[in-house]
Amino acid sequence: MSDAAQPRPKLDLVVLDCPDALALGRFYAQVLGWDVEDGSDADFTTLAPTGGGLTTDSPDGRTSLGFQRIDDWVEPTWPGGSHPQQVHLDLWVPDIDAAEPAVVAAGARVHQHQPSKDGSFRVYLDPVGHPFCLISG
Questions:
Q1: pLDDT tens digits along 112-134
Q2: Are 52 and 33 in contact (CB under 8 A)?
Q3: What sequence ranges are listed for the domain VOC (predicted)?
């Protein structure tokens, strides 16, 4: 049997740990222009691309974001530190300078460490400290 005949998994949901799933979900919904799905709460929140209508049994390649509350949440440290980032999101924008005011207004902080040599990305922290980047180019 060839590999082509084997069903391949589809990435459905990327889940970030946090202290309040609904609060962090609302932050990313504002930044991305996505919708908080019905039934979301402080323990688990799911976003759907606007007009995307995800279903749990057939994602059709429509990857989304989820957020789950963790009782003993510890903010990641980056770069390095005792609680380094485990994952981060790269969000593409046509112009980083033009996009920055909206993500900051939503609650992001510009990180003091900016490793990009050519300005093709800028590092931010979400409201609970997850690093994420706006990328362009």
A1: 999 999 999 999 999 999 999 99
A2: no
A3: 10-137
The SS3 of residue 104 is helix
Angle between the N-to-C axes of helices 96-106 and 21-32, in degrees from 0 to 180, rounded to the nearest 10: 150
Question: Is position 39 within any domain?
Answer: yes
Please report whether residue 32 resides in a domain. Answer: yes
8, with CB counted inside 10 A (0-12, 13-18, 19+), is exposed
Query: Cα–Cα distance between 21 and 29 in angstroms, integer?
Result: 12
Closest C-alpha to 28, from 1, 50, 3: 50
CATH number at 115 reads 3.10.180.10
**Both 65 and 98 in a single domain?**
no
**Whose structure tokens read 């902080």?**
109
Contact predicate 99/134, CB 8 Å: yes
**What average pLDDT does the segment 46-72 reach?**
74
Distance (Å, whole) CA 62 – CA 52? 8
Does residue 80 form part of some domain? no
